[in-house]
Amino acid sequence: MKINADSIRELAHLLDETGLTEIEVAEGDRVIRVAKGAVAPHTASAVPVQSIMPSDPTLPQKANTAPPDTVAHAHPGAVTSPMVGTAYLTPEPGARAFVQKGDTVKAGDTLLIIEAMKVMNPIKAESGGTVTQILVENGKPVEYGDVLMVIE
């Protein structure tokens, strides 16, 4: 396998510019994944990066598009993401959400799942209460420490 070091350098530079912790590009069965502070288990191969990168890679990209809520970060019932991944509010496409705003939950109830490196990780309530805010959208990426929900 031939590795294109220039493509990897470009992706690493893009991580720094955007503040992301991981990026993966693929073309057919060829994939390059670059992650900060983690070892990715995938095999990297040369990929013509220019053909699959966004039209303007200098624009900052934000993982969670939900509006930031400074009150939610300080709230004692804030449920934060323990990892980088993709948040799913439903157990499968078309299914009812694990929880909805206004639902009462008890400690140990599954609130959502975060897919990280093709593993589905259930995020459970640490304490009981009422879900007052859901700050993440189904199928959207989340970063470590993002506030996902608030339970009062």
Q: Unreliable stretches, pLDDT < 50, 5 or more residues? A: 38-71
Measured distance between first and last alpha carbons: 53 Å
What is the CATH superfamily classification of the largest domain?
A: RNA polymerase II/Efflux pump adaptor protein, barrel-sandwich hybrid domain
Number of helices: 2
For the largest beta-sheet, the strand count, sense and barrel status come to: 4 strands, antiparallel
Order of helices and strands: HEEHEEEEEEEE
CATH C-level class of the largest domain is Mainly Beta
Strand order in the sheet with the most strands: 3-10-8-5
Number of strands: 10
Shape: elongated
Mean pLDDT, as a whole number? 76
CATH-defined topology of the largest domain: OB fold (Dihydrolipoamide Acetyltransferase, E2P)
Task: Note the beta-strand portion.
Answer: 25-35%
How large, in whole angstroms, is the Cα Rg? 18 Å
Count structural domains.
2
| Residues in helix, % | 10-25%
Structural class: alpha+beta
Query: Architecture of the largest domain, CATH level 2?
Result: Beta Barrel
Q: Can you put this structure into words, describing what you see?
A:
It is built from two helices and ten strands. The longest helix has 14 residues. The protein has two domains: 47 residues, no CATH class; 82 residues, OB fold (Dihydrolipoamide Acetyltransferase, E2P) (Beta Barrel), CATH 2.40.50. A four-stranded antiparallel sheet has the order 3-10-8-5. Strands 7-6-4-9 form a four-stranded antiparallel sheet, with no helix packed on it. A two-stranded antiparallel sheet has the order 1-2. Helix content is 12%, strand content 31%. It has 152 residues and is α+β, with helices and mostly antiparallel strands. The radius of gyration is 18 Å and the shape is elongated. A hairpin with a 2-residue loop joins strand 6 and strand 7.
